[in-house]
# Entry
Amino acid sequence: MEKEAINCWTLKYAEVSDGVGFSLDIVPSVDEDILIKKDIINSGVSYSNAEKTVAITNKELSVYDWLTSNPLGFGDWFLEISNRI
# Structure
């Protein structure tokens, strides 16, 4: 059984008993458009972080669209600034 949310699909599997089991949230994504990546770089984000930008699915009122996301670039940025201390 799966459940569709705004940005992800939740796949439920391996139910053990009484509702106890495992699930997996999947966020479909594709590489982001180069023009959007260039805008991100022009805003001051490093090339190495901006190149990891992806487009993720977004659903509003049964209409699908794309949002820009960068979890890997954010993680790298966070580690970089936290190591300065």
The chain has one domain: 2-82. The beta strands are 2-4, 9-17, 20-26, 29-31, 54-60, 63-69. DSSP finds three helices and six strands in the chain. Residues 32 and 73 are 13 Å apart (CA to CA).
